[in-house]
Input
Amino acid sequence: MHVAVLFFAFALTGTTLALDNGLMRTPPMGWLAWERYRCDIDCENDPKNCISENLFMDMADRLAEDGWKELGYVYVNIDDCWSSKQRDDQGRLQPDPKRFPGGIKKLAHYLHNRGLKLGIYGDMGKLTCGGYPGTPLDKIELDAQTFADWEVDMFKYDGCYSNATEQELGYPLMSKALNATGRPIGYSCSWPAYQGGLPPKVNYTQLGEICNLWRNYGDIQDSWDSVLNIVDWFFENQDALTSAAGPGRWNDPDMLIIGDFGLSMEQSRSQMALWAIMAAPLFMSNDLRTISSGAQSILRNKMAISINQDALGIQGRRIVKEKSGIEVFWRPLSKNASALLFFSRRTDMPYRYTTSLSKLNYTAGSYKVFNVFTDETASLKDSTEFVVSVNPTGVVMWYVSAPAKFNLRQFYQGGTLHGRVYDDREENAIPRVFL
Amino acid sequence: MHVAVLFFAFALTGTTLALDNGLMRTPPMGWLAWERYRCDIDCENDPKNCISENLFMDMADRLAEDGWKELGYVYVNIDDCWSSKQRDDQGRLQPDPKRFPGGIKKLAHYLHNRGLKLGIYGDMGKLTCGGYPGTPLDKIELDAQTFADWEVDMFKYDGCYSNATEQELGYPLMSKALNATGRPIGYSCSWPAYQGGLPPKVNYTQLGEICNLWRNYGDIQDSWDSVLNIVDWFFENQDALTSAAGPGRWNDPDMLIIGDFGLSMEQSRSQMALWAIMAAPLFMSNDLRTISSGAQSILRNKMAISINQDALGIQGRRIVKEKSGIEVFWRPLSKNASALLFFSRRTDMPYRYTTSLSKLNYTAGSYKVFNVFTDETASLKDSTEFVVSVNPTGVVMWYVSAPAKFNLRQFYQGGTLHGRVYDDREENAIPRVFL
Output
């Protein structure tokens, strides 16, 4: 019982420590332009795909009319290359007049009228990564106020052309400036990605106090190699990263590339599932006007989304790493439930992996298992050996409800399940929650 | 005119030099078990996927009943792990009695009754790669006769557990032994793959005389990285390889993995297109019982197949390699036509590539262009600048019919188009055919 009390104490502490804007109690969901549309400003030759108000209005239409909004995908986020190369007469940022003739405020209204939210982008340096005007220290208050005046709902603050000292000043300053506007603006900080993503260089306690989410690592590209590289980094460093995440503050492994060109259907399911395990922000970067039904069904998977959006906001971990290339991931969820993910790094054929819930550290009891991507259900005793067939580069994802005893003893003990040391006295207490 | 005459002389010479079984005047097409089913012999727990007569009969049913056969996919090829671990009383190979209770001859009849052909597998060493009885030098005649007795139509001779000397004796010996049976048996030699795939270690003139096709390089795996690795090797070594190919004798970059787990739709089209440019054997290794309609439509693309199967049998080349990651491939086809392939190695967004047919070395004239994967057609003057939008890891493939002048001057001059040296006197002769 005292463990549960301690847990709620932790949760409350988390609330007061996190950026005090009350936003993003679950990972934000929506659409972000960068991975798919980059800095395409050639509206003359590529009018449907260039960074312009039309692109964002198109995506807003799709989110609002095709049922994405109801699933939680509500942010429509502008990335780099939206602005004019010059600030206006009063020194304020202004959008490119040809590509955003209506201005950002009008675009925000277009979104708000459809129940959506608008995100915008800036950079700590003199220039953005794409060479547009940045928001260095002396422009932070002005630009925060401009975004608030435009009724923007989220701001991503990139770090190109800035140094560690400027970042150390600027990222907290922007947090205060955004709060000072009085408008709730979700705040995404690229700071850790520019500092290697790991303590002691990165102070995740501080980040949780000033940002709602942060990019820890490099940009995703449209390839399975890129997804794997990101997944490797996040789970190899899970001991340093998972404790940073919680309601209102999230590690961000970058956009979903499902529906683009580089992932197979298996790999698309894997990205969706791994991002759910990681409690990652779900920003699609794709073309919602032409996306295939296969990709849609993955992005719209309600159980995967609900695992991602679980109210506890606990980031999951890799608990098993087999020589066969099979890995098992686990995330504790509210109502004593959990998500289990079996992932294959193999590139040959489906692999029949044999294990049991007790081998995966579940305590004695009978569990209900729901297969996230097939909708199959089963009852499973902790001791029952079962086989999951995992496709190459694919996943099998389970939602495991746990009416019976549930043991989270390996959580936060570092590394994988095999070879762990734990205290036997922990065996039968319920529920086990890490501190 | 004399060029055309020389060309036909070459073609005739090709005929007499190639393995004298009259087979595979165009690259063989069909289905091969290995990549997708490996050495799965666990029929108890995995009855639908284990290496057994049921698997080959299932695939035969699909080829015959679902229209694959009519497209040219007629071979059903057994790979490793089909045999008993022991030869029979008379020293002959025998199939595993549990997994092939009907025997190979009955299976061959099952296929022949459906208008299909059966391929089987052996190895130059004492053991196959999977540890089953091999066909070393002293067993070659016996086993060739056994395969003929079983009415097998194709034989793949692997090289595990054999050395260079044994291979130098064994591969020609098997060729003679197969011919001596009097049964036309297509002969696939893994020999070059075991000798680095390049001259002087590999004698492609000799290979063309004794084998119908040969694996030059490592096994394909179910990943885009593997496809790229193979493509890189074949085109980096195109000067050594293209001249080896022709009717009856083919370089084999290994199976098509379209319909499996690792390739996106873009990447699937890329494999199909690149294999067509390479005049590669088209052996699918997938599950034809469950294959998606998207993968099917790529594998069934009639224009891609007809380019692959072009009667001239000239293996195509990479002619442009841009810093942007765009590459252009070209294959001359019969009727003065050609195939052009634009391929993107990028992993960001569709790339708009600007060029013209004259920049790609086509001579003055007006050409008809047919887009293989979209069925669009266009007329294009050689001098007209055009833009092709190539998706990341994707292709745009054109069949270019050439009523007008056509210049193949860069063919067999090595390397890429840019920076080439060619003889201006060649400019206006038609048609240009390499020697």
